[in-house]
Amino acid sequence: MATPDPRELLELASEAAGEAGALAARGQAKVSVLDTKSSPTDVVTEMDRAAEELIRERLLSARPGDSVLGEEGGAEQGSSGVRWIVDPIDGTVNYLYGRPDWAVCIAAEVQGEVVAGVVVAPVRGEAYIATLGGGAQCDGVPLRAAPRVPLEMALVATGFGYEARRRARQAEVLRTVLPRVRDVRRGGSAALDLCGVARGQVNAYYERGLNPWDWGAAALVAQEAGARVGGLRGAPANPDLLIAAVPGLFEELHDLLEPLGADTDG
């Protein structure tokens, strides 16, 4: 079976994400909570599920042999070697509160490696795209992460989990991080925070408790813009901890977080 062209996968992902983003944007004003996940504050809206169903239909109609891993619908196995990683609304709490900082994320993975990614933030009017080795763009403009700065001059984005014990631990870690950096931002969407690194809007980002659909597309955007994305002690990005920053700053932030046990709940 021929290896698919990442540009073709990107085009399909862009079309599906754009359509799902438009659907979700139209429904934001009348959104309601449909369900909860890990805690009462970890919500699922009706639109999360509707947008993911639309994306699955578009992807599998075009490529019926592919696999899909979605935040809401779980895994669907195919035999083509291509897997789509889908987050229909990253930043659901922002979405629920009428805030603009949410995004539709679709990554295309071939034989276990992400080769194309799309992050569409329809209310913000932004579309981030990347292909492996092909660079990253936002609305047609090439992206480049900000040049390295010392840790004490870095604007660092982060996020928090939904369970009380994890949040308490993350607050303890943050209490040590905050005096060591320029300042901290909490945007509420992991994907848009990673794209913020790619765009130079923040210097670095870290968070515990993410899943592949949170970072799949956006991590490729950040990497193709010149950032390093990984976990602690040489591990790849994983649910224990994800760090993103340009080389040099990545290592400084890593060395601050590691002894704090930022990859644990205490």
Automatic annotation (TrEMBL):
GO biological process: inositol metabolic process; signal transduction
Reaction catalysed by this enzyme: L-histidinol phosphate + H2O = L-histidinol + phosphate; a myo-inositol phosphate + H2O = myo-inositol + phosphate
Residues the entry annotates as binding Mg(2+) 1: E71, D87, I89, D214
Binding site for Mg(2+) 2: D90
Keywords assigned: Hydrolase, Magnesium, Metal-binding
EC number: 3.1.3.25
Cofactors required: Mg(2+)
GO molecular function, one term: histidinol-phosphatase activity
Domain of life: Bacteria
TM regions (residue ranges): none
InterPro entries: IMPase (IPR033942), Inositol_monoP_metal-BS (IPR020583), Inositol_monophosphatase-like (IPR000760)
Listed pathway(s): Amino-acid biosynthesis; L-histidine biosynthesis; L-histidine from 5-phospho-alpha-D-ribose 1-diphosphate: step 8/9
Hydrolase found in the keyword field: yes
Stated role: Catalyzes the dephosphorylation of histidinol-phosphate to histidinol, the direct precursor of histidine.
Protein family (similarity comment): Belongs to the inositol monophosphatase superfamily.
UniProt protein name: Inositol-1-monophosphatase
Source species: Spinactinospora alkalitolerans
Lineage of producing organism: Bacteria, Bacillati, Actinomycetota, Actinomycetes, Streptosporangiales
